[in-house]
Design brief:
Layout: H1 6-16, H2 23-34, H3 38-54, E1 56-57, E2 64-65, E3 79-86, H4 89-98, E4 103-107, H5 125-135, E5 139-142, H6 148-161, E6 167-170, H7 186-194
Parallel strand pairs: 3-4, 3-5, 5-6
Antiparallel strand pairs: 1-2
């Protein structure tokens, strides 16, 4: 029902299309935007348009950037012989926040999911193969998510890359800090046991 007029209703409908945003949240956001000073509302609209128009994939790793190469690939101090394969640019950002990883990344932009019609051809696997041939890395770290799609993607990549003679590793999965074992699922407990370290 159109309670607020066409323009506001359309704004609410568009906001409600965002992931994780329901009707009430969209309505709250719309009214917040309407109460912003005009310059802030214009800055928000401009930021959305600029990000949409200027974002592209890094020519090397497929991360999102507004230059030819992202900040990681453009950094000569990074270890180009170690490539961490992640599903999404947000996964790469999560690893960067640890400030511990010194290698480079490759972003697949998804995971194999036959239920959703996503196969290997829809991912940036071809670009990864080209990169391995060009850069001759020493190790590929498969850092896909610990779910069915992430595991399927990691297994597919491992089988595909193993014949190339490059070392293939998988990130460890285990019990989160502060977690109680009784609440952890069986697969996570098994992975934690499998990835145990000597003390």
């Amino acid at each position: 029902m159109n309670y607020y007029g066409n323009a506001i209703t359309r704004l609410i409908e568009e906001l409600a299309k965002l992931p994780g945003v329901g009707g009430r949240s969209a309505q709250r956001m719309a009214f917040h935007i309407l109460h912003l000073p005009e310059e802030r509302a214009n800055a928000l609209a401009s930021a959305i348009v600029t990000a949409r128009q200027n974002s592209r994939q890094c020519a090397k790793c497929c991360n999102l950037t507004d230059d030819e190469h992202c900040f990681v690939c453009g950094n000569p101090r990074r270890d180009a012989k170690t490539i961490m394969v992640v599903e999404d640019p947000r996964d790469m950002a999560a690893y960067e926040k640890t400030k511990e990883y010194r290698g480079v990344y490759h972003v697949l932009h998804g995971a194999i999911s036959p239920m959703n019609g996503i196969g290997p051809a829809e991912l940036r696997i071809k670009e990864l193969l080209t990169r391995i041939q060009d850069d001759d890395p020493a190790e590929i770290i498969l850092a896909t998510n610990p779910n069915v799609e992430g595991e399927a993607t990691a297994m597919y990549l491992a089988k595909l890359l193993k014949p190339l003679g490059v070392k293939i590793t998988r990130i460890a999965h285990g019990v989160p800090m502060g977690g109680d074992l009784e609440y952890v699922d069986e697969v996570t407990l098994f992975r934690a046991l499998e990835g145990r370290l000597e003390m």
